[in-house]
Structures are given as structure tokens and as C-alpha cells.
Amino acid sequence: MRIAVTGSIATDHLMSFPGSFSDQLLADRLDRVSLSFLADRLEIRRGGVAANISFGLGLLGLRPVLVGAVGADFEPYRVWLKQHGVDTDSVLVSEEHHTARFVCTTDRAQNQIATFYAGAMAEARGIDLRAVAERTGRLGLVMISPDDPEAMLRHTRVCRDLGIPFAADPSQQLARLSREEVRELVDGARWLFTNEYESALLLDRAGLSAPEVLRRVGCWVTTEGASGVRIRRDGRPELTVPAVPVPGVVDPTGVGDAFRAGFLAGTAWGVPERCAAQLGCVVAATVLDYVGTQEYRLYRDPLLARLRTTYGVGCAAHLATRLRGLA
Questions:
Q1: Euclidean distance between the first and the last CA atom of the chain, given in angstroms as a whole number
Q2: What percentage of the chain's residues is helix, strand, coil (to nearest 5)?
Q3: Of residues 147, 257, 289, 301, which has the active-site annotation?
Q4: Is-contact 37 17, C-beta < 8 A?
Q5: pLDDT range class, residue 31, cuts 50, 70, 90
Q6: What 8-state DSSP symbol labels residue 198?
Q7: Which of 254, 263, 250, 262 is nearest to 220 (CA)?
């Protein structure tokens, strides 16, 4: 099954300030702030939800189609993604704007001052998913992740028009979407992805109850951090999958994107839903061992061993053949 992933593609610039922001904030001068912080560390990371999910799918051998908008500065990032199994030929390159950037400074107390520059992402609304489908052949699924809101709505409408199954992952954009827009994004989705907080926010923004949402989607998958994953379908018992224990988490950034990659890979391979969620949890746990969203690697034997240790032999047996291509 060919999977297209639409959404954000960004570069993260993460800086560390060894002092405390509060030491330089004057209570009687907050209406006229002019501050500069001397950072002692800079990390530049590849990011963006769609790129992160595509990276994970690429590692698992699925060759996903990445769909989003970037600037002319994207070329080194494109090479990286291609090297890791991602089809980037449907990425739109802006003639005016840079690739989206997240710039964040963190002080010693973990307080953060950040700016997000959408840049070229605003042009994603001009991407025609029909052309992507024509170029790649029949798409088995389109994952619609956070993006320019108009692009998200347009991609959803095209999926309905063409009869292409789609997954909805509105997450970070929920706060920007109107009630009708949220409802339009989830209506008819084969999969709806949220984390625990986003589940509550989605209900509030959509003005719907959980049973009403379940009647509109095929399946609602909610990640709940260390508590694992909850999978709900209308009229069926709830399915829960525990998380993989990870002692000494290195960096939680990108763990949700990694789960989605593993889960979607499992569903593409036709394994049982519980097994797909278990694979997602193992991929997510792997990301927790690394700094950055695309710095991890997946190796067959350690991955299968983690599956067996956490969940028993069943899922590992289902996936052994599918993971044969991994090192």
C-alpha cells in the first residue's frame, strides 16, 4: 500500500541559554522589552510532522510520498530524506519563502522563548493531491498531518472526491481551526490520531461528544505517553496497548510521529490492529533513545527483541518477515 503523508516540513534551531530569563525581566518594564541572550549551544535538527512520519515509514521500507511546501534551502534536507527511503518528488518548492523554521531558546530552568516561521508552508494550499495520485499511481492511504489549514481541508476534500482512504491528524492546528473545519477534517477518516490532551481539545473545538466523533471516523487512536495507546471504534470494546518501558529518556521530541509511522506501517502490511499499535510503540520507544526526531535507526533484531520482551512472541512472529529488509 502506497502512503502519502501531507503536512509540515521544517528545520528546528534549538539554542541553550545557561542563565535564567527571569533574571533579565524587569516587572515595571514588560511593556518595552529589548533583550538578548547569549546562547552557548546550538542544535539544528530536521523536523516537521510530515517529514518525521515519512522518515519513519522510509526506515521501515515503505517508501512514502512526502507532500508539503518548502523553500529553495530544502535541497540538503531532500537528499537526506531520499537517502532514507522517502519519495520527495511531490514536494512544492517556493520561489519566495524559506522552509518553515522553529527557533527556540531554552534557559537552565527549562523555560523557553520560541518563534515559528511558517514560510513556505503557507503555499501548501496550492498543492493538488490529484496530481500526486496521478504521478504515483493509486494511493492506498493519505495521512493528513498538521499543515497550512487550507491545505489540510483541500487534501481532505480531494481524498473524498477520489475515494482515497485518509487519516486525520490535526494536532497542533486544532487551536486555529473552526468548529466546522474540525468536523470536516475528521468526517470519514479511516484513522483519527490525537494525543490525550488533543482528544479533549478536539471534542471542545468540534462541539461533539466522544461517541459522536466515533460515529464519524473508522478508528480513533489516542497516544497517552507512558500509559500507552488507546484505540476506539464505534460499537466495539476499547483496545489498550501499554507503552514500551524506556529507562532514562534522552529526548521526547518526535515520539508521536514515530508511533504514527510504526502504526501505519503495520496497517499497510495488514497485521492485526493490536500488533500495529505495538510496532508503533516500539518505534516510538526507539526515538526516545536519541536526541532529535530523525536521528534514530531501526535494526531488525533489536526491534523484534523489544516486541517479544514487551508484548510476547505473537506480534514479533507477524512482523518477522516484513522486517527482513532491515539491517
A1: 22
A2: 45, 20, 35
A3: 257
A4: yes
A5: confident
A6: H
A7: 263
Q: Which residues contact 301 (CB under 8 A, 6 or more apart)?
A: none
Please return the burial class of 31, using the count of CB atoms within 10 Å of its CB with bins 0-12, 13-18 and 19+: exposed
Q: What's the one-letter identity of residue 169? A: D
Structure confidence by residue, pLDDT tens digits, 238-292: 999 999 999 888 878 889 999 999 999 999 999 999 999 999 999 999 999 888 8
How does DSSP classify residue 104? E
pLDDT tens per residue across span 129-163: 999 999 998 899 999 999 999 999 999 999 999 99
Could you report the per-residue pLDDT of 80-137, keeping only the tens digit for each? 999 999 999 999 999 999 999 989 888 888 788 888 899 999 999 999 999 999 999 8
CA distance 136 to 91: 13
pTM score of the predicted model: 0.93
Alpha-carbon distances, residue 276 vs 98, 272, 283, 316 (angstroms): 36, 6, 11, 11
Return the SS3 of 19.
Answer: coil
Residue written as grid cell 539554542:
15
Is-contact 11 77, C-beta < 8 A? Answer: yes
Q: Specify whether 87 is catalytic.
A: no
Q: Nearest-CA neighbor of 284 among 200, 218, 227, 202?
A: 227
**DSSP character for 87?**
B
pLDDT at residue number 237: 96
d(CA 89, CA 111): 39
E-only strand ranges, the chain: 3-6, 10-16, 41-47, 65-67, 69-70, 92-93, 100-106, 112-117, 141-144, 166-168, 191-195, 220-223, 229-232, 239-241
Grid cell 495488514 in the structure block, residue? 270
